[in-house]
Amino acid sequence: MSENSLTVVGDSCAEGRGGIVRADGSFAGFVVQITKSLGISGPLVNLGSFGATTQDVVKRQLPVALANPAPLMGVIVGGNDLVTDYDPERFRRNLRQIYASLVGPERLVFTTNWPNIPDKLPGLEESFRAVLRARFAEANAYLDTLVDEFDLVCLDLVNAPICADPVMWCPDGMHPSPAGHQLIGTALADLIDEVRTLRVAQPR
Description:
Blueprint: E1 6-10, H1 12-15, E2 20-21, E3 27-28, H2 30-38, E4 44-46, H3 54-67, E5 72-76, H4 79-84, H5 88-102, E6 108-112, H6 126-150, E7 153-155, H7 178-201
Parallel strand pairs: 1-4, 1-5, 5-6, 6-7
Antiparallel strand pairs: 2-3
Helix pairs in contact: 2-7, 3-5, 5-6
Organism: Nocardia aurantia
Protein name: SGNH hydrolase-type esterase domain-containing protein
Domain SGNH hydrolase-type esterase: 8-183
């Protein structure tokens, strides 16, 4: 393939936390699996970091990503907003800014929606779990509008049967397990390849 570079912004899931831990302490998560599946040899810029919110991406990661543009750009962020720091207006504003800044001619931007994390998080009171379910549903509905508006490639984790399998998740309920990262990365790579093929066959 001619496109051999990838830039990713996001949180600890983008970072690869929960995936295989390398000798240097870094994580081999779904981004690494994407590069393997698509035959990407570099350069790779993964800005994902633990605890990052959409605000962190806008302030700290987005300028770096825009300085390192790639034919393939990934965005995996929002879970920390929804669970710990939720301001609906700020959340929507940040998501729109992130995607509006990254999309461009001859560029493919991919993401995922937010799976059923509320029911996986341990130790929550049911009342707060219900609040989180509503937040996640609202966030996914808004993401759907951005996917349509910006022609994003979005892997549907909400309706993926495999996401209901406990083997997919770490005990914290938030991060994919090594198996989960591999499955998500492979599914994303397959989807990216499919969309690229369609765009070549049906240029816009």
